[in-house]
Amino acid sequence: MAHVTEQLARRRRTSAPKKRTGCGTCKIRHKRCDEAKPICNICRKTGRICDGYIDPSTGRQFGGHADRNSPFLGIGPRTLFANEVEAQGFRFFETATEIQLAAALRNHGWTPPLLQLSHQDPAIRHAVIANGIMSRRYQASEISASTEPLANNLSQAALQQYCKAIACFRSQLGSNLDVNSPSLETAPACFVLLIMFEFMQGNASGLIIHLKHANKLAATFGGSRQTQFFIDLLALIETVAALWLNLDLSPADASPCLQELNKCPRPLSLPHGQISLYYDLSWINDDVLKWRHAVASAHVDSMTHAVDPKSFCAVSWRTIQSKLDTWHERWATRSPNEEDSAPHYYSLLRVNYLVTVLVVDAVHQRHLSAQPIQNEFTHSREPPKLDYFNEIFKSVAEVLEAGHSFSRYYPCAEEGPLEAAGLLPLFSFRHSFIQPLFYVAQHAPQASLRQRAIGLLMEKPWREGAWDSYIMGSIAKSSLGGIAGMH
């Protein structure tokens, strides 16, 4: 009987979940590390050099032998890296950034083995390191605006790696014109990494350039399943760009056809009566994204659509308007309650409803007038819904003045793995106060209101998921400067 009990106990130990927190040497040897500090007992007993451990919240290395001569570092050989900065960037991507990216791309099909590809391709390797360093920089300081020396040094190191990735990638594309060449097989992964970096850096123009080139390259690929996954991912990234930058990319730039979006609402821990309102507004915004893309693509080639684009746009506009009206009627029956754990969520729903109405109006006007969506207010004689712009600004200003804290994680937004590891949800888009205020900063008819919104975004920066108020304020400021220069 004792023998049977011992066997059962041994089976239970064998089936225990694997850990990713062991020392670097045990990880590469696929051994279960006892995680003794500063040097694990397995390395000590076998006479191996212990590479030490990585703190997933900071990316910093600790423990291990002072003179580490092990030929391995994380999952990659030490000869891959020119210095310790590159090694740390790679390790942080392995232990942190890859988890953050996986949380954002969950259920979207395209999951390339980025770490394995980095062993074969120098462009991907430098891009992986750049993203690892940049995400570590955000762990050091959550917002873009920072006076911390560590954060600024990491930004410079990340930019150097990014430039190396660009140089290698251009060389590959220039010397290998055959679309079946090995370097072009890894091009999709490299493009996604470059787009990720530009997003984290807040470089809107750089993100758009990479996305356009990726779309053009995807058009030269064959019709494999993996290629379709990549094209679908580019369409998803384009919708994120439209949301992030409040603009649509021109279909003339080889914009991919947007597939059916998976409804991925990001509910907050809201008071019970507001949960369904949050879900419903998220679903309405999914419809707006699909409709917005259809309007932008309608004049390219109607044969690529299952229905006539003009008819589709008109029906969608009426449907969306009806849903918004119904949503607002339900919202109006509720009022903020002093007993609510987070009463400013009432304002959160209101400002996101207002910005949705403004976006729908802008897209509808573009559909009717065929004017670029970025300039519809510039050409309009009577600015539409000016009071909505003012209300958004006033509501956000009041919330900030009241000193309400913003949740770093959303309990129901599939961010559990990030919260458990103490990692920022760098690529998680949710309803926020930043995005509506950014819309005001970019599109308000009055330049003075735009300037006030920019000031509110940049004066005391804050973060809500992927939204960084300082980055958004900087983008809006650049846009406002360009408009001023034209007048």
From TrEMBL:
CDD domains (UniProt xref): GAL4 (cd00067)
Domain spans labelled Zn(2)-C6 fungal-type: 22-50
One GO MF term: DNA binding
SMART domains, sorted: GAL4
Coiled-coil portions: none
InterPro entries: Fun_TF, Transcr_Regulatory_Proteins, Zn2-C6_fun-type_DNA-bd_sf, Zn2Cys6_DnaBD
Record Pfam families: Fungal_trans_2, Zn_clus
Comp. bias regions, Basic residues: 10-21
Start and end residues of each stretch annotated as Disordered: 1-21
Highest taxon above the source species: Eukaryota
Disulfide bond keyword on record: no
RNA-binding is among the record's keywords: no
Name of this protein: Zn(2)-C6 fungal-type domain-containing protein
Natural source organism: Penicillium subrubescens
